[in-house]
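Hey all, sorry for the wall of text incoming. These are the three entities for the joint prediction.
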Amino acid sequence: MADVLTVDDLNVTFALHDSEVHAVRDLNFTLRQGETLAVVGESGSGKSQAFLAIMGLLARNGSASGKAILGDTNLLALSPEKLDNYRGKDIAMIFQDPMTSLNPSLRVKTQLVEVLVRHQHQDQATALRNAIEMLERVGIPEPTRRANAFPHELSGGMRQRVMIAMALLCEPKILIADEPTTALDVTVQAQMLELFKSLTDDFGTALVLITHDLGVVAGLADRMMVMYGGRIAEKGPVDDLFYDPRHPYTYGLLHSTPHIGTRARTLTPIEGLPPSLERLPSGCSFHPRCRFAMPQCKTDRPPLTGERGKRSCACFYEGKLSYEEVVA
Amino acid sequence: MPGITHKDRTLTAYAEKLESLDAPKGRSLTQDAMRRLVANKAAMVSIFVLIFIILAAFVGPFFVPWGVGEVDWSSIRKPPNFEKLHYLGTDQNGRDMLARLLQGTQMSLIVAGVATLVSVVIGIAYGAIAGYFGGRIDALMMRFVDIMYALPYILFVIILVVIFGRSPVLLFVGIGMLEWLTMARIVRGQTLSLKEREFIEAARAGGARATTIIGRHIVPNLTGPVVIYATLTVPEIIITESFLSYLGLGVQEPLTSLGTLISNGGPVAEVMPWLLIFPAIVLISLLLCLTYIGDGLRDALDPKDR
Amino acid sequence: MNEMAPNTLLSVEGLKKTFGISVGFFGRPLTLTALTDINFSVAKGETLGIVGESGCGKSTLGRCILQLLQPDEGKVLWLGQDLTTLPEEEMRKRRRDLQVIFQDPLASLNPRMTVGEIIADPLRTLMPELATEERRARVLKMMEAVGLLPEMINRYPHEFSGGQAQRIGIARALITEPELIVCDEPVSALDVSIQAQILNLLTELKDEFGLTLVFISHDLSVVRHISDRIMVLYLGRIVELAGSDILHTDPRHPYTQSLLKAVPIPDPKQARARKLEGLIGEVPSPINPPSGCAFRTRCLHAKDICAAERPPLETGADGRQIACHRWREISAS
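and here's what came out:
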């Protein structure tokens, strides 16, 4: 499988009133064609900012450095005008709240057609035909009628499907989905995840799924990247990380997630609070909350060790991870 | 049910703990806003200029060589003359312009201050009650406001003049009576949206009465829009006062106001420009300062993405 | 159906709640039926979970129980007494025992009050006889119980993270030593690791103070974790009410089955093995629900009777309540 996106040393900083905040540090990963990569993290992990940076959608006071190589172009080095040629075409992004991503004063079909006219240089008629076909592809019943509707006339799940349709119109190589199902009902979410699965199979699109929900990850992802405090804590194949996590944070996340099948298991939360990016702890940012912390963790930052493309982990602890008191 | 308050001993222990507790004061929203305001250069400059004008208007008269009504027979209609200590010249009656300007500014500021205070107090009470209770009470109260709005303002003032005669007090009342309407509308709007917020529901779940909710939960959260609006209406009040005085409905001789000075200076501006220029400068400065401060307050109290 | 067992704290009978909404400038006002025919009871010491998707009415139900909304019909019996007919002063007295925790911790705290003032607020209203020092002492003790540092007492809500702010909300709910607390999505707005902290805290406090909880959430995994019994709502009606374990191992209502199938499982092998057939469509609009059984438009087992008649809420042999014409024929998935 070919690599579609290679990210090297991505750093994202925000200029604040009197200081600078690093939202993302030293991010390295590779995305392969057709695979689904889950990016997991909580508030302050930097998971969204990293991909906003790649898409050139950072806030005004944000800046990114490093490389994000798509094909043979470094997206981070492009000017906004040049980046426009890739955005929506080779790499697309959908967001959590479809209501704010769609223009409420334009009909659905207008927004879809606009994408095709701009990027694929199709004429209105062809574009409309393709748009309606895509709406059908993403599972919207009565696509012609829906295409004429305004966003507020559609339900949440429907709107999210429209977003996906819009993102897929140009058959991008990469689709980035930032918490795409968090705002949806559970049953709708399940359908949406099925849709994602079929899309990656049918189109061969690489999917980056940014989420905090480990259940969603388990059902969909091939590989997974756990982020904490702006850095990668651990990454690798999904099964490896779920059944044999090496990083205490990954382990902690798994044990604080309620699993509907087992009620008896007590949740073992990760103590403490997510770090403030302005005042990250010294050494390993996770050490204040880590049950396996050693003196070294406070002073030195653990490097990301492992094979790129296989699994890597940024942690000094080498022993077995287990909370003895957990009832399995 | 085992309570947490097993009587006095445990609580006494906590009471003692409280004594020795060094609980630092948190950073209130107001402090945050002040910090943002201080960072806004235009607003800070305006604040200093405004303070300067206020000080000059109230303290200045003690230091000015000439009195307000004092007539200097030797200098009638004279341009600024430093020898005779008429720094801003004299008017048609030989009165020193600097003294008159300071007194006039004083009067305008007092009128603006009192009228704003009246409108704020009445407006908040009226708007919060209408907004919180909603339904028919709200409809009734706001229809009254609508009717008041529809009345021709000048007619209303003239009626007041007829009843009360000409006096500065009339200005306070009259202008305040107009401004509270808009304040009430703004407060009502804010209350309507505040009412839906969860902490109001939490207060109701805690058994709070309507008066408590309005007084403890709603009004303190109104300060933002109220302060902003008040700051932005002071210029409007000064202009209205100027207008009324221009029409002869406001302050009367020997008292003067910025509006009166301007209305007097206008007709003779070609021959005696100093009668118009100086009051105009002060008026414009006041208006600009208040506008910048109002803008600064709005940015400080309602920050969007930096 | 509602056994007034001696330890029943709360009993809801025939609850109905509608909202009138106007559509557009010239439209007729429409009626949105948020809840219909709600009957259940809560025994002392138990945790009743209420679960459902958008439009199911679970938040409305929470507010009706607390009398923050007046139901159109029906009774809310607290220790046998109907709260809906109580005068305001009498209701206020009951509020000492009937408290609430809200979903969005930062929105449910007055941004202009300090933590101490917020937690003390119910005491000021409901127990005004307390002296100031005693009030402050109780606040401090409660802060410790929920895991807040005492030095934080003078801080303002926006200085806290979501999880800590929720602890403030919990402290406020507990300060009057209530019997029953309605938890309206108390962890939905929190990060996963913090959710676990707060859930554990709620479980500890429940044991320590002998609380009874009504736990409302859309997250079935969370509800399953903390509840003894679970009530599933769909478009304002109860579709199934059963013990937490039974509901999970042997769900009989097609909607419950769909819900369980849809819940993401944080285990890749199990997730991959799951078959997701049978999940179709979305929740219909509550303004215009389908005739008969509201779920029939998405139900694979729907027959003619489902469109013609609304299924009554029956009680099964195992004690579960279920509203489905065909539940005996359908096997668990």
